[in-house]
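To fix ideas at the outset, we first show an illustrative case, written as a sequence plus integers encoding its fold:
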Amino acid sequence: AAIGGSTLILITTLLLAVVYRKRSSSSKLHLMNSTSSKVEKFLEDYTHQMPTRYSYPELKKITNNFADKLGEGGFGVVYKGKLARGNLVAVKILDQSRHSESQFMNEVATLGTIHHFHLVRLLGYSFEGFRSALLYEYMANGSLEKFIFVEGDVLGWEQLYSIALGAARGIAYLHDECNRRIIHFDIKPHNILLDADFTPKVADFGLAKLWGKGSDHISITATRGTPGYVAPELWSRNLGPVTDKSDVYSFGMLLLEMAGRRRNIDVRASRSSQLYFPEWAFKLIEKGELETRLKERGSTEMGSEDEEKVRRMTKVGLWCIQYNSNDRPSMSRVVQMLEGNGDDVTNPPMPFNSTPSPGSTIAIFYRRLFVDGLTGS
């Protein structure tokens, strides 16, 4: 009887497991079908503006059966490919997750409808059920990140300055010049790509949002971006509305990393005062010692014109990361400041608030900035 009872329990458990798996599979299939219908409706609405659509078998042919992997990120894997007419492309195969749907539509809705010399071009896309992919122009030199965080000054100051100015022009176009304003929300060295001639192009619009020209702010439900580049108002709504000035903050952090040729938060810094580069750079500017100290760190000669470029990049970067978003310049103004035309950039005020109390909103922001930036969490 005991054996019979055990057998009955086992059979019942197995039957329940089978039923659960069937229901789970059915639920997943329903979700996939729902997602597929949503994306297809979106593509139908944008069809008159869309780049070329490719089938999955065509993607396999373009990438030689996904033979040449270029890299892997949070949203998928990127492969090198070649179109029939000979153009080299980067093919991003998106992960099958709830985030890939929104990233796919974000990229198509933004890059699929705009064109600018300093924005990476979306050349095509693929969507078949749960499989989606995006095809971009191929950027031979990869991301800016691998050139500014390495030992030895691979890029000269003039080249770095040109890259900074080009990236600024691309972002300014998003904010002020295209038909529908776009906030990128993830400006950082990894998302500035360089072609064979080191022309910079802003990439990765997976977190981007369209922003109506009549609106004075944008609504978001969660913090967007990468720790270390995220503006204070994105951490806490008490610090002001989210606007295009959030991108300005991120660009400022990027610009400072280019000027310092190091990460803004560097746990390997020889002195604690140099741990956070923006604060150290601000103090050096106040003392008039910026160029001298950066010369000591660099491996290439720095002439007077180079010194001017570094000084300008640093000052503009510090203006961009002002704690109060109203004190930050627009990206169009940033372009003007970088172009210079002989005019010096005025010294920025202290970008950071005075040392906050441990429980204040400001303290929470700085704790997140440092802890998340250092740990990558």
